[in-house]
Amino acid sequence: MKKSFSPSNLTLAVVFMLFFISFSVVLVLNFRPLYYHDIEALGIVESSGISEEDIRTNYDTLISYNSIFGQKELDFPTLAMSESGKIHFEEVKNIFVFVQWLCISTLFAGTAGLFFKFRKKDAGCLKLAGVLTPLVPAVLGGLIALNWENFFVTFHHIFFRNDYWLFNPATDPVITILPDAFFLHCAIAILVLIIFFSLLSFLVSQLLSRHWS
User: Fold this and answer.
1) What's the number of CA atoms in the CB half-sphere (13 Å) around residue 142?
2) What distances in angstroms separate CA 39 from CA 45, 46, 47, 61, 174, one per listed residue?
3) What is the pLDDT along the chain (213 residues), one digit of tens a residue?
4) Residue 24, C-beta contacts closer than 8 angstroms, at least 6 positions apart
5) Of 18, 208, 17, 21, nearest to 124 (Cα)?
6) 50 Cβ partners below 8 Å, 6+ apart?
7) Are 38 and 177 in contact (CB under 8 A)?
8) Distance (Å, whole) CA 99 – CA 118
9) Distances from the Cα of 64 to the Cαs of 68, 123, 163, in angstroms?
10) What angle do CA 22, 122, 194 make, to 5 degrees?
């Protein structure tokens, strides 16, 4: 067990922790079927007064825009957008692009680290990642369970230095197709994935340790 807590294993464990988190975020945010399901489950057509076809088209445009390779300017096909709304979505894209680059860089760094660790038959970094990473969803999950609305508001205060995220449906009707409940579902899915990857990492480390012993 002491071998697992070597500085190199701790460093790699943090790298994999960041990868599990960023990959989970990227995966969920690009998993469009989740939103398509919520269109009906949350009654978005009825609450927004917008057709399902237009809802899907505008949502797809937003998701594509937030990609690393997405268009530079956001232009909703059928929805109006204010200047403050445009600025907010630019800020959101900057965050998402950062998370995507973090995912890619930690993947390469983790893979390179594993290459050298496996040559030494040392899977300690995976064990540590499997043990430490669940602390993140445990803390965030607790905060979400206590008060989702407060968590949601606090999140925006931390990541945004303005109140442009407080949309006016009259000038930014896109907010009517993005209910808070959908973001809650995204948060839950992300936490579940993080836990899954943590367990997978721990199980792989155990299997490798047995194989090498």
Assistant:
1) 5
2) 7, 9, 10, 16, 13
3) 445 678 899 999 999 999 999 999 999 999 999 999 999 999 999 999 999 999 999 999 999 999 998 888 999 999 999 999 999 999 999 999 999 999 999 999 999 999 999 999 999 999 999 999 999 999 999 999 999 999 999 999 999 989 999 999 999 999 999 999 999 999 999 999 999 999 999 999 999 988 887
4) 190, 191, 193, 194, 197
5) 208
6) 44, 78, 79, 173, 176, 177
7) no
8) 27
9) 9, 37, 24
10) 20
Cα 155 → chain centroid: 13
DSSP code of residue 35: H
Q: Quick check: 33 and 149 in contact, CB under 8 A?
A: no
Structure tokens at 14: 């943090």
